[in-house]
Amino acid sequence: MPKKHKVLLIRCASYDPGKISGIIKEGMQELGVKPYGRVMLKPNVVIAHKDYFPHAYTRSEFLEGTLDATKHQSENIKELSVGERSGITIPTRFSFKNARYPQVIKKYKAKTYYFDEERQVPVKLMNEHAIRNNIFVPESISKTDFLINLPKFKAHPWTRMTLSLKNYIGIQDDRHRLVDHNQFLEHKIADLQEVIPSKFIAVDAIIAGEKMMLTPDPFPMGVIMMGTNSCAIDTVGCHMVNMDPNTLIHLKITAQRGYGPIDINDIEIGGDFPLEELQENNKNFRFCLERIDNYFNVKGNLTCTVGTFPEQHSRDYCWGGCPGSLQESIHIYKTAHPDVLKKIKKIRYVVGQVEGDLDLQEDERVLFAGNCTSYKGKLNGSFVTINSTYKTSSEINVRKTKSNDMVKRTFITMKNVLFNRKKRYLRAKGCPVSVADHVHYISGLGDIPNMNFEPKLMLLSNLAYLQMRIMRFLNRFF
Ligand code: SF4
Questions:
Q1: For residue 321, which atom of ligand 1 is closest to its CA?
Q2: At what angle do helices 406-419 and 455-474 cross, to 10 degrees?
Q3: pLDDT truncated to tens, each residue of the chain (478 aa)?
Q4: C-beta neighbour count of 433 within 10 angstroms
Q5: CA distance 115 to 79
Q6: How many Å lie between the centroid of ligand 1 and the Cα of residue 212?
Q7: Cα-atom radius of gyration of the chain, to the nearest Å?
Q8: What are phi and psi of 321, to 5 degrees?
Q9: Ligand 1 pocket, 309 CB below 6 A?
Q10: I need a labelling partner for 100 at 20 to 30 A (CA). Which of 79, 381, 383, 394 fits?
Q11: How far is the CA of 390 from the centre of ligand 1 (A)?
Q12: CB-based contact 199:412 (threshold 8 Å)
């Protein structure tokens, strides 16, 4: 009988780096983990800011504890590094600084890899079910011998949960990250697993995140999960919040491709925190896998019309793309304007192939979001045609992807808003339309201050952007 993958669940109620280090050292010893060669720690720092995004990321104390344990347990280490690409086009430098990572990285004399500043290289995918033959990743990832995956335990509006497997979305820079970040998101996550295995995983579930992934509500769970197989970790993680692992689609696809188990009976669970006790504690853990036409339509001045979608496997909804971006962008606004849905002017958000006339209120403007959206009908008495420009996965060449540069995207979206300010509707292009673009569009159509330009965020993010551009340029030559 093949040996079962082991997952450890260890109690830890506080962010004490010394305690975390002790737990992770013992975990590594029990699991027989001895990092070697070029060792990289990959946390989840999708975004970080003490006022707006305090619970979105793997905490610096967790990183510190893991760096300490890794140094203690390593054999023949050639390089110790921390690497990540933040989300929503924000420079990773900005998020690392806000997460207080640089101090910790310096203390352990580790190297930092900001993936958005690096050269991106292709990796050939061999799995017969992969949706692509090649996938681009930062050079440092392609050279890593030993990847230590440090996810944050969070709910997620696109995929229901983000744990070990989903954390791989952060190994791609934006030019490649947003490719297939649509109805193929779950398949993309499975594809990424082939690039590099996680040889050790420690999940920061000391304070988990409920509902959203950028602006989650804190949920004290008081546990550190550890293991050596991402599917096993994600399977146990699902059970911890009373969720059937088969409903975590990227886990199901990844397990079907042979990367690990999805059946709890195929996993040995150890540690001092019984799964049953966690299930009882977490029975009120909240997710946010809700369609936007249900989620927003009763709550204020934003209403959504959702059509049908291009891909056979999910005709009725696009879980991996524009609708989830809209949800995240509204929740970003809520951090500064809790009553945003009442404050904005009336917006009708239209996504997918929509048949029949839109029944609009007098002062309601329309955002046709995403390349797959199409509409033929009357708006304000005039006939309007919006054609789909959607391309399926096989029609997109990953070697010719467009830049999703933060400043460039800001200019494009602001210009779109400005030039069409007198029109009844706007068309937002992209597949997906990113969270940052949604923030611009909501501000333009809803006539509220733009969160992308919040003084506390803008100054430092633009400074980080300039540094990122300079380093990216220099890294072409070295
Ligand atoms: S345009 Fe948006 S909604 Fe349409 S398939 Fe792409 S990501 Fe999904």
A1: 7
A2: 130
A3: 568 999 999 999 999 999 999 999 999 999 999 999 999 999 999 999 999 999 999 999 999 999 999 999 998 899 999 999 998 888 999 999 999 999 999 999 999 999 999 999 999 999 999 999 999 999 999 999 999 999 999 999 999 999 999 999 999 998 899 999 999 999 999 999 999 999 999 999 999 999 999 999 999 999 999 999 999 999 999 999 999 999 999 999 999 999 999 999 999 999 999 999 999 999 999 998 889 999 997 768 999 999 999 999 999 999 999 999 999 999 999 998 899 999 999 999 999 999 888 888 889 999 999 999 999 998 877 889 999 999 998 898 888 888 788 888 899 999 999 999 889 999 999 999 999 999 999 999 999 988 888 888 888 888 998 999 999 889 888 7
A4: 26
A5: 16
A6: 19
A7: 22
A8: -130, -125
A9: yes
A10: 79
A11: 8
A12: no
Question: Is any atom of ligand 1 closer than 6 Å to the C-beta of 324?
Answer: no
Q: Which atom belonging to ligand 1 lies closest to the Cα atom of 351?
A: 3
Does ligand 1 come within 6 angstroms of the Cβ of 349? no
How far is Cα 330 from Cα 299, in angstroms, rounded to an integer? 12
The class level of CATH for 5-281 reads alpha beta
Domain ranges of the chain: 5-281, 292-462
